[in-house]
Design a protein that fits this description.
The complex is a heterodimer of chains A (about 625) and B (about 280). By secondary structure, chain A is of the alpha/beta class. Chain A has 4 domains: about 40 residues; about 170 residues, MetI-like fold (Orthogonal Bundle); about 160 residues, D-Maltodextrin-Binding Protein, domain 2, CATH 3.40.190.10; about 160 residues, Periplasmic binding protein-like II (D-Maltodextrin-Binding Protein, domain 2), CATH 3.40.190. In chain A, the strands form 3 sheets. In chain A, strands 5, 6, 7, 8, 9, 10 and 12 form a 7-stranded mixed beta sheet that branches. In chain A, strands 2-1-3 form a 3-stranded parallel beta sheet. In chain A, strands 4-11 form a two-stranded antiparallel sheet. In chain A, helix 8 crosses helix 12 and helix 18 runs parallel beside helix 26. Chain B is mainly alpha-helical and about 280 residues long. Chain B has one domain: Orthogonal Bundle (MetI-like fold), CATH 1.10.3720. In chain B, about 75% of the residues lie in helices and about 0% in strands. Chain B is globular, with a radius of gyration of 23 Å. Classes of the chains: A alpha/beta (about 625), B mainly alpha (about 280). At the A-B interface, helix 1, helix 3, helix 4, helix 5 and helix 6 of A face helix 1, helix 3, helix 4, helix 5 and helix 10 of B.
């Protein structure tokens, strides 16, 4: 009975630990893109994953970093342990104490410390910076595992080997290493696992063009993770599962106990298995890469764009047609992108910020003029959009519009039985717990300020205070402040009302026809995102080729159909076959809508801090 | 002998250089940024910022949630470690198997999966509805965040406790039993005191990450609950590195407290080993 209770408890814990993993594995066979909604069995995510070059690249980077950092950390750590074991206790404690800092310290503090170190020394973030950071946080795990083994070891054995004529190196490898091998091995394995699983530190130290699975997932979380990622994780998980299972429960030598040499042999075998599997995987991925890389190659272009803001096929077509290799990266907010570019932490050739951010970048002298001789396709961009762009780029010298749209309310007709035409509905307690707000400062204040009848660019403190009070009072009835999870939540009927960009609305209607989009009568924001070239760009011609390519009508159309954000490309709009979409008020609102909408302006550092100050008050307010 | 020590010091030198360059110096950068403003002038503003209600309330909430999840982890992990010890599973292999394996499924994905499980109309909701249970929605509440923390950091509590428990000699326990102690007496008078070191390092390993996470609160808290980690991250995103560094310094006070703790714990565990 008692043993039953024990087993039951163990079972419950294992269930708890493995439930989310089970959900993810199921999701990898699920036809629906949305996690937790079953639509039917499929294997196509597995096929897609092998064809997804970006994901393969991220997998390769992750494994290479893990392997290198675990190896370096193990070598450095083990050598240090050999000496530390012989040191005075106080000295040893100091060194161990320092070593353990990355393990005991908050990850975010360690990550920030690395970022400040590299930025402070003017070192561009790159592959090496990630590697350095990973080695550093892996070392404590090596020391933790190896030091006790070294201390337990009888130092007479090593001396005896020397006496018997072995050189110190022989003695080290033949006597010491086998003795402490279990510690080295578990140190290595733990380091490897920690490195693979790390997100925060990689996120803060990675260079342009470098993505591990973690950082890739993080950008995807916002827009809905691609199911290929579940497929990949399942494969990885199953591989390691089988591996560990074989190591632990595979055919063992019968007399494991007492016979030291046999145990050592086993450990050596484990080691061999682990290493050979890693080698096979990495060689496999490299080989795959070689097979794939038979395209003509004339140079690199580093692109920094919003998440889910391009049809991946467009990137492939561009590579095929021009011969440039595209290193494509995504950001989540304008501000995040600004920090990276301003601090020169990573260098990009072409970036796609929003209107007010382009203004800010211009004021900070971060952009270079585009040579429009290289962009003949500019003629396809509607004149009215270039006119609007003058709001932030007065002479149309720095920016080519890419997408535009409005901010409005998306609502579910089945849950909201009244006409929606005012922001006031977002403050109605009737919809307690069914409202989704945007997590970005400007969009949240756009709602409150428009509702109160103020300009969305106001710097008047009284108006901002009033808007802040309004947002604070709204907080208890808000279900969540989200960035891009709006899509999934609205499609799943998990909320009734949401603040959203017009481009998202079209996609969401395709998935759930109960959803409607409206730009409230009080007015709202109209925004333009455009391509710009930063001053420190390494390959301006490639950047211009990229912009020109995206302006080609057929390409702009492909993009529009994929991301569903309104295109300023008039020729592309003319090519749209579906009349409903071509004349959609959501995608291409008429002037009556646009005339009540305002563009965001750059508010200056003072203004930014003011908004940030009030937004933090909303963030800290009671939520119920 | 003295020569070997010197020679050995040579082995350690790359290591010493490494930890000085990549552990100590980055921390000095945090201190520098924390005590300066954007223009590089000395200021205390970044530290004083913690006195703003939005910040210290976030810190207080983080402390409360971290304490709760640490306690839950301890309560779940201790019996578990005891059970595992008594099962005499084929050594550490099994433990590694159970607790390290989930880490191979990316941490973000696992947390995201919890969101799918706990969400309104999510996996759990749909499942419970089959039994007529509705309204069990903890998503976007502190409870969901605590659940996420317990889930992610439980292994860090189980492993150190287990490691200490397996080192306790069976004879010690048997002796207590022979002398008439019942199960609870043995547990409280013998086993727990002998496993103090493991408990201490488990607490440290769970408390610090819980205190400073921003990913779990982001994904499971629906952006409604800001923890101190979220605030630091937001400051980095909002291009205010000095304030981020200042708040990190405040956070590090707790880490220093932990370091003192762990220093004691280390000498303790050495004693345990020495006594054996």
């Amino acid at each position: 009975m008692k043993s039953f209770a024990r087993r039951f408890y163990l079972f419950l814990i294992v269930l708890f630990l493995y439930m989310p993993i089970f959900v993810l594995i199921v999701a990898s066979f699920n036809d629906s893109k949305i996690l937790g909604t079953w639509k039917g069995f499929t294997l196509h995510w597995y096929r897609d994953f092998f064809e997804n070059a970006t994901m393969m690249n991220a997998l390769r980077t992750t494994l290479v970093i893990a392997l290198l950092s675990a190896t370096i950390a193990t070598v450095l750590g083990t050598l240090a342990c050999m000496t530390m074991a012989k040191m005075k206790k106080s000295t040893k404690n100091i060194i161990v104490g320092i070593t353990n800092i990355p393990m005991l310290n908050a990850e975010i503090v360690t990550a920030l410390a690395f970022m400040l170190l590299f930025i402070g020394l003017g070192v561009s973030l790159s592959f090496s910076t990630v590697l350095i950071a990973h080695v550093t946080f892996c070392i404590p795990y090596v020391v933790l595992n190896v030091l006790p083994k070294v201390q337990q070891m009888d130092s007479n054995m090593y001396e005896a080997a020397l006496d018997l004529g072995a050189t110190p190196i022989q003695a080290f490898f033949l006597v010491t290493v086998p003795e402490i091998m279990p510690g080295i091995l578990s140190g290595f394995l733990m380091s490897f696992t920690m490195s693979i699983d790390d997100f925060i530190i990689t996120h803060f130290t990675r260079g342009s063009g470098i993505n591990t699975l973690s950082t890739m997932i993080y950008t995807e979380v916002r827009k809905g993770i691609k199911p290929e990622m579940y497929a990949l994780s399942t494969l990885l998980f199953v591989t390691v599962f089988i591996l560990l299972f074989l190591v632990n429960y595979g055919p063992k030598s019968k007399s494991t106990k007492k016979h030291k040499s046999l145990t050592q042999l086993m450990f050596k075998n484990k080691y061999t298995i682990a290493v050979s599997v890693c080698v096979v995987i990495i060689v496999g991925i490299f080989g795959y890469q070689l097979l794939k890389d038979d395209k003509e190659y004339i140079g690199d272009v580093y692109v920094y764009n919003w998440g889910e803001y391009i049809d991946p096929e467009v990137i492939e077509l561009f590579e095929e047609e021009t011969g440039y290799k595209v290193h494509y990266e995504e950001f989540e907010t304008n501000e995040e992108m600004f920090t990276i570019v301003d601090k020169k932490a990573r260098v990009y050739d072409v970036i796609c910020p929003s209107d007010y951010m382009i203004e800010k970048m211009l004021e900070n002298d971060l952009l270079t003029e585009i040579n429009f001789d290289n962009i003949p396709n500019l003629e396809h961009i509607g004149k009215q959009y270039l006119e609007s762009a003058k709001g932030f780029d007065p002479e149309n010298k720095y920016c080519v519009p890419y997408c535009w749209g409005t901010v409005g309310i998306c609502y579910n007709k089945n849950m909201v039985n009244e006409e929606v035409n005012s922001w006031s509905i977002l403050f109605d307690e009737k919809y307690d717990g069914k409202i989704l707000m945007q997590a970005s400062v400007r969009d949240a204040y756009c709602v409150a300020l428009s509702y109160l009848g103020y300009s969305i660019n106001t710097l008047n403190e009284d108006e901002l205070k009033e808007a802040t009070d309004l947002l604070v009072s709204q907080k208890p009835i808000v279900q969540a402040y989200v960035v891009d999870q709006v899509r999934d939540k609205m499609i799943k009927n998990a909320a009734a009302l949401a603040v959203i960009y017009s481009g998202e609305a079209i996609y969401m209607q395709e998935e759930n026809d109960a959803l409607e989009y409206v730009v409230p009568d009080e007015g709202s924001n109209v925004w333009i995102d455009g391509w710009v070239i930063p001053k420190d760009c390494q390959n301006k011609e490639a950047a211009e080729a990229w912009i020109n390519f995206l302006c080609r009508p057929d390409i702009a159309l492909m993009n529009f159909e994929y991301i569903t954000y309104s295109t300023p490309n008039e020729s592309a709009r003319a090519l749209i076959e579906d009349e409903d979409i071509k004349n959609s008020q959501i995608a291409f609102p008429d002037n009556s809508v646009l005339s009540r909408c305002e563009v965001y302006n750059y508010l200056g550092t003072e203004g930014d801090n003011l908004y940030d100050y009030y937004w933090t008050i909303v963030g800290g307010a009671e939520s119920d | 002998m003295n020569k070997t020590v010197k020679k050995n010091a040579l082995f350690a030198s790359p290591y010493i250089v490494w930890i000085a360059a990549f552990i100590i110096i980055p921390l000095l950068f945090i201190v520098y940024y924390g005590f300066t403003d954007r223009a590089g002038n000395f200021t205390l503003e970044n530290i004083k910022a913690i006195a703003r209600p939005e910040y210290y309330e976030a810190l207080a909430l983080s402390l409360i949630l971290a304490v709760i999840s640490t306690i839950i982890c301890l309560l779940l992990a201790y019996p578990l470690a005891l059970i595992l010890r008594n099962m005499n599973m084929s050594k550490q292999g099994f433990i590694v198997f159970i607790f390290i394996l989930p880490m191979w499924m990316n941490f973000l994905l696992r947390t995201y999966a919890w969101q799918a499980i706990l969400d309104i109309n999510g996996v759990l909701d749909v499942f419970l509805a089959k039994f007529g249970i509705t309204g069990f929605n903890i998503i976007n509440t502190p409870a969901a965040i605590v659940l996420g923390m317990v889930y992610d950091y439980l292994p860090f509590m189980v492993l150190p406790i287990y490691n200490v428990l397996v080192k306790i000699d069976d004879n010690v326990i048997n002796a207590a039993r022979d002398l008439g102690a019942n199960f609870w007496q043995t547990l409280f008078k013998i086993i727990i005191p002998l496993s103090k070191a493991g408990i201490a390092s488990g607490i440290i390993m769970v408390f610090v990450p819980s205190l400073t996470t921003f990913v779990i609160s982001d994904i499971l808290g629906g952006g409604k609950l800001l923890l101190i980690g979220n605030i630091v991250e937001n400051k980095v995103k909002a291009d205010n590195l000095n304030l981020a560094a200042g708040l990190s310094l405040v956070l590090m006070i707790f880490i220093v407290i932990n370091m003192v703790f762990s220093g004691n714990d280390e000498s303790d565990s050495v004693k345990v080993k020495g006594g054996k």
